[in-house]
Design goal:
Elements (H helix, E strand, L loop, with lengths): L1 H35 L2 E3 L8 H12 L18 H6 L1 H8 L78 H10 L19 H4 L3 H14 L2 E2 L2 E2 L17 E3 L21 E9 L15 E6 L8 H8 L8 E3 L20 E3 L20 E3 L6 E2 L12 E3 L4 E4 L10 E3 L4 E2 L1 E3 L2 E2 L5 E2 L1 E15 L5 E2 L8 E4 L4 E2 L5 E4 L7 E3 L11 H7 L1 E2 L4 E5 L7 E5 L6 E9 L6 E13 L17 E10 L4 E10 L3 E5 L6 E4 L3 E5 L5 E9 L25 H7 L56 E3 L1 H21 L1
Parallel strand pairs: 4-5, 5-6, 6-7, 7-8, 8-9, 9-11, 10-12, 11-13, 12-14, 13-18, 15-20, 18-28, 29-34
Antiparallel strand pairs: 1-35, 2-3, 16-17, 19-26, 20-21, 22-27, 23-24, 23-27, 25-26, 27-28, 29-30, 31-33, 32-34
Helix pairs in contact: 1-11
């Protein structure tokens, strides 16, 4: 019996031991399967189901916690939502039979993943996950068959607890992997849409060979070098790869003329277009709206017979380029008026010299950054612009135009001022720069029309300056300085007063050359200053001064090294012919008298007035058109000829004016002497103001077109302004998205299930063994 009992016990122990080995084998196999499936390799997949996409998006945005346990297996708890829906699973997965103590966790590892990685890209809306039978959660510990999708109670698809790689050193490789996964990832820009020019030879999308050549040369000049060799070489075949690198485009000396700017639309970073070594035909222009960053445009347009109206050019080609800061169309045969530029609020410089622009200079006070304007060498008329109200202006050049009237109040202006060769009746004593210090005063060679003065035997003094030149402004106060007077200057070498008809269409710059050919009338008059008057000069005509037209040149009293104001004044003289009061019009006996009828008519031929002038037959006569109140003389005002016995008629034509006229007559006054009682003659006057040769202030840029040198008492130098350009660049920020990388490892749900089963069986064995 004992033997049977002993054998039974041995048999039972063998059975029990065999059972333990079976369980141990199952556990080992399960753990092996779990370790083998702990990682998965991500592969690029262009087609993913909406359910899988939604699951991955949820995984990125859902907070997750990771705890490293002291047991050989690290288990990640299920999401809170899953545990709440399945208490049984909560008990099995998060409550072990034996208390487990976790190692300290890095605070960064406990942060929600959504705070450590960038947001996933937007995914299409996916349908809600269908409800799952709660009983399915009871199968949580059963391994799923290959290829069978797990139920909702298991780990989400693509998520797997990390493999335990603790080698006993105290550092778990999973912790390092977690930190790497949760650290900010490298931003991945969204793939750009393919460009229509990718892989296309530039000759296809830039039809003009000269433009292609200019672009390629510009890019290769700017290519950075490494060890003396350029980093890249641009050709027509690969130009499409470098369109973003072109920021400015300039023409080169000797380059062929560009006839078509088509293709610039692909250079989105282009902000400067500068073609001033060649003349561009108007037909080459494009709507530069396709170059949105364009801020600097500098072109010389060709005289190609096209419409060069500036308003049309701005409206057709630059209407939407509101980033313009520098607008330059010099020497471009522009016509029409200067358009409204108020919408181009970023303009800093306007450069339109050497054109045929007409009309007035517009008010530019609404441009807050405008500091330089050059509209010289045009045909602009009207008054001088009120630059004292333009907020940023420091450089203005309106020379060589037809501006009239007086200067406005300039007390609010500080900077360079160039207004020579106009018809302005006054100037400034000194131009003040930005620091309030005197600077060059370019106000010379104004051209003014004076009055007509009647001389008699007992009254031969007149003042040709007062009422024509109105005075000189003090820029500190904006008021006329009564202490600043005028004086005569030479017209040309040795000539102070010239006699002869001056063609009103003769350019002002040619008057000096004309004076050298006219009759020198310097010795026909004596000239004296008038004390106590701002600009008055008294001219006293000597005997036998003929009727006719005279031209003088006057300067302001303080004229000096910094220049100043000067004006050509043309006036007329008429001598009264004495008439015998006893028998007017009757010649002496034996002398044949010739009569000249003087008829003054308006433009319609209506007679305004008439008179007669007589003289000996055969004598020469000179008749000057009289000054008529309310009328302005049209055409030549001097008639010459020879008296004849048959008589003659001279007709002068006038035009009615609404106000004013050629000016009031200046009442003759007695000659004025100087403080010592001696009269001042014209010769003394010439010696008092020696001829000056002045070199203009040095500037940093050459003028586009320099006026030809003229024989003149004052040597002029063309002036320009320094081109300044402010260019602004903006860097766009892109939101990055972290995506799975090809061949990267991720956690598999199969390993989680295997480890879960193995852990449960191991705990069961240890418990039974005890």
């Amino acid at each position: 019996m004992n033997k049977m009992t002993s054998e039974a016990k041995v048999h039972y122990k063998s059975y029990k031991a065999g059972k333990h080995w079976v369980v141990a084998s199952i556990t080992a196999v399960t753990l092996g399967v779990g370790l083998m499936g702990a990682t998965e390799t991500a592969r690029a997949d262009s087609t993913s189901s909406p359910d899988a996409t939604a699951a991955k998006t949820e995984q990125v945005t859902e907070p997750a916690q990771q705890v490293t346990l002291k047991t050989p297996v690290t288990v990640e708890p299920a999401a809170k939502e899953d545990l709440a829906d399945n208490p049984e699973q909560t008990e099995k997965t998060s409550t072990p039979d034996k208390p487990v103590t976790a190692d300290p966790v890095d605070p960064e590892d406990t942060q929600p993943e959504e705070t450590k990685t960038t947001d996933a890209p937007d995914t299409p809306d996916t349908p809600d996950t269908p409800d799952v039978d709660p009983e399915a959660n009871q199968k949580v510990n059963e391994p799923a068959a290959d290829g069978v999708e797990q139920s909702e109670g298991n780990q989400p698809d693509g998520q797997m607890p990390p493999e335990d790689t603790n080698d006993g050193s105290g550092v778990d490789a999973n912790d390092v992997t977690a930190e790497r996964m949760q650290a900010p990832a490298v931003a991945l820009a969204a793939p750009a849409a393919p460009s229509p020019i990718d892989g296309v030879d530039a000759s296809v999308w830039i039809p003009d060979a000269a433009l292609r050549d200019a672009i390629i040369k510009q890019l290769n000049r700017e290519a950075s070098s490494y060890n003396g060799a350029p980093m890249y070489v641009v050709t027509e075949s690969n130009l499409y790869q470098y369109v973003d690198k072109l920021t400015s485009l300039d023409d080169t000396i000797g380059a062929p003329i560009v006839t078509d700017f088509t293709g610039l639309a692909y250079f989105k970073n282009l902000h400067s277009l500068n073609f001033t070594r060649m003349s561009i035909p108007v037909s080459a222009l494009i709507d530069f709206t396709v170059v949105p960053q364009l801020s600097h445009i500098s072109l010389y347009l060709a005289d190609d017979g096209a419409n060069h109206d500036l308003t049309r050019i701005m409206n057709t080609y630059l209407s939407q380029n509101l980033n313009l800061s520098f607008l330059k169309f010099g020497n471009s045969y522009l016509t029409g008026s200067i358009p409204d530029l108020s919408k181009y609020t970023k303009l800093t410089m306007i450069y339109l010299p050497n054109n045929q622009l007409t009309g007035q200079i517009p008010d530019l006070s609404m441009l807050p950054n405008l500091w330089s304007v050059d509209v010289s060498h045009n045909q602009l008329s009207g008054g001088f612009p009120n630059v004292g109200t333009w907020p940023a202006m420091t450089t203005l050049d309106v020379s060589y135009n037809q501006l009239t009237g007086s200067l406005p109040d300039l007390s609010g202006y500080r900077g360079e001022l160039t207004y020579m060769f106009n018809h302005l009746s006054n100037g400034v004593i000194q131009v003040l720069d930005q620091d309030g210090q005197p600077t060059v005063n370019y106000g010379v060679y104004q051209r003014l029309i004076g009055h007509t003065y009647k001389l008699s035997a007992d009254q031969r003094t007149f003042d040709p300056v007062t009422g024509v030149v109105t005075g000189f402004q003090d820029m500190n106060t904006g008021q006329i300085d009564d202490n600043e007077g005028t004086w005569t200057a030479a017209l040309t070498n040795g000539v102070t007063i010239a006699y002869g008809d001056l063609d009103p269409n003769l350019p002002t710059s040619d008057i000096a050359a004309w004076a050298a050919t006219a009759e020198d009338a310097t010795d026909w008059f004596s000239v004296q200053r008038v004390s106590g008057h701002q600009v008055a000069l008294n001219f006293t005509a000597k005997q036998d001064v003929p009727d006719g037209t005279y031209t003088i040149h006057v300067i302001n009293q303080s004229y000096g090294a910094l220049w100043g104001y000067s004006a050509y004044i043309t006036f007329k003289i008429e001598n009264e012919v004495p008439v015998d009061p006893g028998n007017p019009g009757t010649p002496d006996p034996g002398v044949t008298t010739g009569l000249v009828n003087v008829v003054n008519v308006d433009q319609d031929g209506k007679v305004i007035s008439q008179s007669q002038q007589s003289g000996h037959v055969g004598d020469r006569f000179t008749i000057t058109a009289p000054t008529l109140a309310g009328y302005k003389l049209v055409g030549n005002g001097v008639a010459t000829g020879t008296y004849t016995a048959d008589g003659q008629t001279v007709t002068f034509t006038y035009q009615a004016v609404t106000s004013g006229g050629d000016g009031d007559e200046i009442a003759p006054t007695a000659p004025v002497v100087d403080d010592e009682g001696e009269p001042v003659t014209s010769g003394a006057a010439d010696q008092a103001v020696p001829e000056k040769t002045v070199t203009a202030k040095t500037v940093t840029a050459k003028a586009d077109k320099t006026a030809p040198a003229k024989t003149s008492p004052i040597s002029l130098a063309a002036t320009t302004t320094t081109t300044k350009q402010n260019t602004t660049r903006h860097a766009a920020k892109q939101t990055a998205t972290t995506l799975p990388q090809t061949d990267g490892e991720t956690v598999s749900p199969w390993a989680g299930l295997a480890l879960l089963i193995g852990g449960a069986l191991t705990g069961f064995i240890f418990k039974r063994h005890q």
